[in-house]
Description:
Blueprint: H1 16-25, H2 29-36, H3 40-51, E1 62-65, E2 77-81, E3 86-92, E4 98-104, E5 107-112, E6 117-120, E7 127-130, H4 146-152, E8 154-159, E9 171-176, E10 181-186, E11 193-194, E12 202-208, E13 211-216, E14 221-224, E15 238-242, E16 251-256, E17 262-271, E18 277-289, E19 295-300, E20 306-310, E21 316-319, E22 330-334, H5 344-347, E23 351-355, E24 360-363
Parallel strand pairs: 20-22
Antiparallel strand pairs: 1-2, 2-3, 4-5, 5-6, 6-7, 8-9, 9-10, 10-11, 12-13, 13-14, 14-15, 16-17, 17-18, 18-19, 20-21, 22-23, 23-24
Amino acid sequence: MAFTGEFSRDWAWLPEGLLHSILEKLVALPDYVRFSVVCKSWLSVAVLRRRLNTTIHNQIPLLILPPRNTGSSDQRNSLYSVTDKREYNFKIAISDKKRIAGSSHGWLFAVEEHKDLVLINPFTRGTIRLPPIVPLPKIGFEKVDFRTLVEYKVVKASLTADPILFPNDYAVVAIYGSSRKLAYIKSGDKSWRFLNIRHQFFYDFLSYRGLIYVVDRSSMVVSIDISDSNLSSSSSVVKVVVPRKSDRPKATYIVESSAGDLMLIHRYIVRSGYGEKRTSTFRIFKLQFSSSGEAERVELESLGGDTLFLSDNHSMAVFASNFPGCRPNSIYFLDPSFMIGQYAAFMSNDLWIFSFDDYSLKRL
């Protein structure tokens, strides 16, 4: 028996289960996008998996570079890949009157000089404007004293979910002020909610399995359930997960590994002969949780196949073998001692890599 005509395949009607299996194998975001534009049925499956948070694996973060020619009319920032070592032909318009205070789920957090916190999606051009955490007196920015401005400053901000996928079910969490306090605002709220926690000066936080995990400068970890609105008086909502430690590193980051474990990353500094401070080494701790929800710090000698990307505005882990050019068992980081001014996280070109293979530091 022979076929006389061309055998045609209707790719649009592949079984949904097979499409989900294909998506699960796709790691790089460009491949995921190509899958989504094949046809409407493939797009609907891709959107569904994104809503279920089972699709997009952690991607290699991109650096935002300042404009090349400060004297030209084109004052847009560009994106740079540290693993591909190439600049993408994609421009982001960020006013010099805005300071970036974080990035999350593809959104940037821009803090205006004396106004609101603005979420900017550089790909969709969408914006979400939030009220200031600490309202300033209406007497003109130039007349507000320095202490008020410091208390207003948003140090770090992050999203619990993507507002595009979950427009009615997301929250913005922020560390703000000279005491590095914590506040959050839910979608639809008109004002921020503040957390009355005795021990403050928080350094980093992470949304993890429905809770917010926050670490302070003494490496104490606190879990917060923001689904409960009575945060100031309910002892069951704010819980100490890891008690204080006597060892105080220069900075502590909290990151979720590619395997889903919570890790604390300690960064230590050393002072050079010229009085300059720079990063000297890192230590990693895995949080080993008990049935009560408390955790013990277990020091690790290696990141295994993971690679970490650390900065004051956003930190994350990826499984290195999924991304060619990414060095496993290493930390890519921007050293704050080499950053300049309030735009430090994005204005410095000094990127470093720390390897746990030989505890070496290399300037990229």
